[in-house]
Design goal:
It is a single chain. The chain folds into two domains: 56 residues; 102 residues. The protein is 79% helix and 0% strand. The chain has five helices and no strands. It starts with 5 loop residues before the first helix and ends with a helix. It comes from Autumnicola psychrophila. This is DUF4179 domain-containing protein.
């Protein structure tokens, strides 16, 4: 690449070095005064619109953030597996119905002999319910993290295992009761 000298670049350019026409300076100053005068008025109008637009944007942002906050609060109490996906909704419905059925069965089998077991099972269920509520809050905070979802499903499985164990124990108590009455001859 060849080095260009500045003088070589401008050698062929014809610069207009003639004097301006008479009154050029006055006309130029007059134009500057007109621009300054009109420039002083325009910023006031622009600043007034800018103020209104700024207030409107601020209110819109406030409404958006307020809506997001209240929506967050509303979701906080209702966010669970069903809100993750349709498959998780089916999973939650399955486990919930299974738990309800087993709780009804336990209540039907309740007797004076099994009252202590049922009472203990209900206390453990209350603990698992509390853990599930905490997991729901964690799900909201974590942005539907898969580990939290897995923990929620595990919580449902623990409840079902607990209820199955209680039902098994109730059946054993009923069998023992029936067997002990069979040994007596009247």
């Amino acid at each position: 690449m060849k080095k260009d000298n500045i003088e070589e670049l401008f050698r062929d350019v014809d610069f207009d070095t003639s004097e301006p026409h008479d009154g050029h300076r006055e006309r130029f100053l007059e134009k500057l005064k007109d621009e300054n005068f009109s420039a002083k008025k325009k910023p006031r109008v622009r600043s007034l619109w800018a103020t209104f637009l700024g207030i409107a944007a601020g209110l819109a942002l406030l409404v958006f953030l307020g809506g997001t906050y209240f929506n967050y609060q509303a979701l906080g109490s209702s966010l669970d597996l069903a809100s993750v996906s349709p498959e998780m909704k089916q999973t939650q419905e399955f486990y919930t119905s299974l738990i309800e059925n087993e709780l009804k069965e336990i209540q039907e089998e309740k007797s004076p002999e099994t009252e202590a077991i049922v009472k203990d099972a209900l206390a453990q269920m209350a603990k698992l319910d509390t853990e599930y509520e905490e997991l729901k809050r964690d799900l909201l905070k974590s942005g539907k993290d898969k580990r939290v979802i897995h923990a929620m499903i595990n919580n449902f499985q623990q409840r079902i295992d607990l209820l199955n164990t209680v039902l098994t124990q109730i059946e054993e108590i009923k069998l023992l009761k029936n067997n002990s009455h069979e040994n007596y001859i009247i």
